[in-house]
Amino acid sequence: MKKGMIKVSVLYPNGDGKTFDMVYYCNKHVPMVAGLLGDSVKGATVEKGLGGGAPGSPAPYAAMGNLYFDTVQAFENSFGQNVDKIRVDLPNFTNIEPVIQVSEVQI
C-alpha cells in the first residue's frame, strides 16, 4: 500500500465467550464484501490475533480485517450503500461487535 491510501480496519475484540470463525470469514465474508464494494477496494488483508504484548498474554483482538481504498470518498460511496448486507452476515462467523477505524497510510 502506498502513502495517502485509506485503510479501513475492522477489529474484533477478544474476550471470554466471544467466538470467531476464521475459515468462514476468509472464505465467505471477505469475498462477499469485496464483491459488494467492487473496484473501489484496492487491497485487503486479514489477521488472526495470536497474543498480546506480554509473553503468554491473550491477543487484544481475535481478528482484524483491513480494506484499502484510494480515498475516503471511495470508501464511503461503496460501503455506505452496502452496510446492511455486510452487517447481516456477521452472525454467520462471530458474536463480536466490531470496532471500525478509518486511517490514512503514512508509509
Describe this structure in words.
It is a single chain. With 107 residues, this protein is α+β, with helices and mostly antiparallel strands. It has a single domain, classed as 2-Layer Sandwich (Alpha-Beta Plaits). The chain is 28% helix and 27% strand. It has helices at residues 22-37, 72-80, 83-87; strands spanning 6-13, 43-48, 61-69, 99-104. The radius of gyration is 14 Å and the shape is globular. The model has no long low-confidence stretch (mean pLDDT 97).
Q: What is the arithmetic mean of pLDDT?
A: 97
Q: Classify the helix fraction into a percent range.
A: 25-40%
- Write down the CATH topology: Alpha-Beta Plaits
Give the termini distance in whole angstroms.
8 Å
- The portion of residues forming beta strands comes to 25-35%
Q: What class would the helix/strand composition place it in?
A: alpha+beta
Radius of gyration: 14 Å
Look at the structure and give the CATH class. Answer: Alpha Beta
Strands in their spatial order, largest beta sheet = 2-3-1-4
The CATH architecture name reads 2-Layer Sandwich
Give the helix tally: 3
Order of helices and strands: EHEEHHE
Q: What's the total number of strands? A: 4
| Main pleated-sheet profile | 4 strands, antiparallel
Ranges with pLDDT <50 over ≥5 residues?
Answer: none
User: Which term fits the overall shape?
Assistant: globular
The count of domains is: 1
